Amino acid sequence: MKTPKKNNRKSFSKSIVFSLVFLVLGFIMAYSYSLSSANKETKGFTGGAFFEQEEQYREELIDQQERNKDLRDELQEKQSGVQEYERSFADGEDRYTEYAAEAEELRRFLGLVPVQGNGLKVTLQDGDYNPDSVNPNDYIVHESHVFQVINELYISGAQAISINGQRIHGNSYIVCTGPVITVDGVQYPAPFVIEAIGEPEVLTSSIELTGGIMDQLINDNIIVTLDGGQVIEMPALLTES
Amino acid sequence: MWLSILGLILGISLGLLTDIQIPPEYANYLSIAVLASLDTLFGGIRAHLQQVYDDKVFVSGFFFNIALAAGLAFLGVHLGVDLYLAAIFAFGVRLFQNIAVIRRIILAKWAEKKEVRETI
Q1: Is the separation of the CB atoms in B70 and B29 below 8 Å?
Q2: What is the ipTM of this complex?
Q3: Neighbour count for residue B86 (Cβ, 10 Å)
Q4: 20 to 30 A Cα–Cα from B113, which one of A35, A38, A178, B41?
Q5: How far is it, in rounded angstroms, from Cα A105 to Cα A93?
Q6: DSSP-based three-state secondary structure for A209
């Protein structure tokens, strides 16, 4: 009885040792197996390293190409912009003459340049002394008369107007100061010579319109003289008269 | 017997489940260790069949061979000599010898059994 028990215990310890041995064996083999399979994978990866690199290069190339394309598009856009600009420049060349003419005209209106040309000369003179009239205002030229004439002349296409040789411009003012009128700070007595550059016929006919300025002025006992068809010269605004 | 099978299964599952990554150059050591353990196992079987089996020799041989093979490979890697080839060669030759001996013994036993049966 004793020996089998001892034998049993011995076999038990033996089996424990064996189990330990087999555990180590199994572990080593399995681990080696899994490691080698993992290695194979990494090997595939290292084999694919070239592939990966190639892929990377290809991606870089694609990136570069895309960038090139973008830049090319940008260049094209800029070029078309330049073309547009050039075209507008060429158009502008044609327009420059228009602009210059317009500027010239505007300058004439502003009185910045001396002008000369055909026009109409309107002379407004105080009426003859009328002993019947108590009020001398009834027969002298007022600034409103001058205004009316100037407005009429402008409306009918006068390009430049002067009063007694003084240019009228956009900011001109005409004030009545007793028996004289002040044009831009300069006093003028009657008679007032209003010169206008433009089409003499048009200006004359517009002044002489029935019921127009002419009639009103005559109604106010003002002596009006129209003198068209001669070359009128006007100084620039800033030149001293 | 059951315990040893259990240990084997446990070891295999443990080895498959472990996710430790070791550098590929150390995989050589492991292969050597596998070879050493197999050699020792077959050596033990042969010894058992030849009735010269000893527990202590087997267990000590098992672990010592593994350690020695791994150490040799390690030394070889660091010396620049492929010493693990020596271990592989030695263990491989011994493995084949052991298996051959086991085969012969089994064949002899089988033949003996057959003879006995025939005589009966």
Answers
A1: yes
A2: 0.73
A3: 14
A4: B41
A5: 19
A6: coil
The vertex-A237 CA angle with A233 and A238, nearest 5°, equals 125
Distance separating alpha carbons of residues B69 and B82, to the nearest angstrom: 12
| DSSP label of B23 | -
The structure tokens listed for A64 are: 């570069």
**pLDDT value of residue A179:** 76
- Residue A241 has a pLDDT of 43
Under 8 Å CB pairs connecting chains A and B tally to 99
CA atoms within 13 A on the CB side of A149: 31
Tens of pLDDT, residue by residue over B4-15, are 778 888 888 887
Inter-chain CB proximity B62 and A21 less than 8 Å: yes
Chain A touched by B111 (CB under 8 Å): no
Give the tens place of pLDDT for each residue, A147-165: 888 888 888 888 888 888 8
H-helix segments, A111-136:
none
User: d(Cα A132, Cα B23) in Å, to the nearest integer?
Assistant: 135
Inter-residue contact A117 to A182 (CB < 8 Å): no
Contact A38 B33 (CB under 8 A): no
Q: Tokens standing for A21? A: 């041995």
Spell out the residues 6+ positions from residue B69 whose beta carbon is closer than 8 angstroms to its own: B29, B32, B33, B35, B36, B84, B87, B91
Give the Cβ contact number of residue A146 at 10 Å. 21
Rounded to whole angstroms, how far apart are CA atoms A25 and B77?
24
For tokens 């527990």, name the residue. Answer: B55
Bridge pairing between strands A115-125 and A223-234: antiparallel
| B11–A contact, CB cutoff 8 A | yes
Torsion of the alpha carbons at B22, B27, B30 and B34, rounded to the nearest 10: 140
- CB distance A27–B63 less than 8 Å? no
| Biggest CA-to-CA distance, chain A | 180
User: What's the rounded Cα separation, in Å, for the pair A73 and A65?
Assistant: 12
Q: Are residues A128 and A226 in contact, defined by beta-carbon separation less than 8 angstroms?
A: no
**CA-CA distance, A120 to A116, in Å (whole number)?**
12
Q: How far apart are CA A163 and CA B82, in angstroms?
A: 121
pLDDT at A24: 82
